[in-house]
Specification:
The chain has 381 residues and is mostly beta strands. The protein has no helices and 33 strands.
Length: 381
Amino acid sequence: MKRSRRAFVTTAAGALGGLALRPRLSGAQPARDGDAWPQFRGNPLLDGAARSSAPALRVLWTHDAGSDGVESSAAVVGGLVFVGTLKGALLALDLATGALRWSYPTGAEIGESSPCVAEGLVYVGDLAGVVHAVRVGDGKPAWTYKAEAEVRASPVVAGGLVLIGSYDSKLHALDSASGKVRWSFETDGQVHATCPVAEGLAFVAGCDGEFRAIRIADGRQAFTIPSGGYTGASPAVVGRRAFYGTFEDEVLGVDLDARKAVWRYQHEQRRFPFYSSAALGAGLAVLGGRDRLVHALDQATGKAVWTFQTRARVDSSPAIAGGRVFVGSGDGRLYALDLKTGKLVESFEAGAGITASPAIAGERLVVGTVDGRIYCFGEKG
């Protein structure tokens, strides 16, 4: 049975201090945090595009996070790497050396939820449904919030709120300083994907097959667009368009002004789900498929520009830097591809599957593997 859609508002709509809202996106991009990667997909648009130059795939250091594995994607801010582990720890590592600065025990596994760093705190969710806010400086807890089911989505901070979905079918908006609930919006299915944010709207591609725009100021739905299928991938936004794949073997290009899908892509022969989130650059939307391919699609038309074959499913979400696409595969390899052509530039054999997504900052790339190894790549010297 589907649940009713409603917003649970616990504070006045004006509590965000006059956050400007517009019914349509103007195409303006939020400011980026210099050469950093402070959250899943690098920024609130979830576009997977780094400011850094392309890193070389030369191992600078590794860190053993435990054999339980790493599904969480790293955040890189202020010379530190933050990453969650299935062993149930949020780690802070030195970006230069890989040395452990601190380890915060969550008490439950951290799955795909990836840290978000803002204003001296690191936020992450765990599989017991707890959202944690941890102090960057010493790894001590600031606050926790308990959702009604597991959290696999990654937090996004906007307008003084931590926005995070849960398998309790809700998008939660928590006060970033205190963890108190500002509002919760209930969908008709689990909220697995992370929500991009642009101009006062949070976009939720849900397991209920709907793409929703939720107003950050009051938690009310601005509009909804049918996706036509279960969605685990997080949307990526550029200008007036959003891009995401579904478990109905499609990738959608959604016009946020017209409020409709303007194209749908399916591979001509290989029909498999898309779990990877898209990276956006050079007019392309690049994402992995469970068909073992990396797909590069024209953002305007949805036509395939190139594909690249790996040896296993690609659940890792690509990152773009310096004209290259970096993406992991279940085949245990990290690939660097030419963005325009899809040709292989170089690769690294990790020896264990990579489902986490690369984080790129300061000409360094950090990613974890399913056997619990965290790698940092870049130029030596």
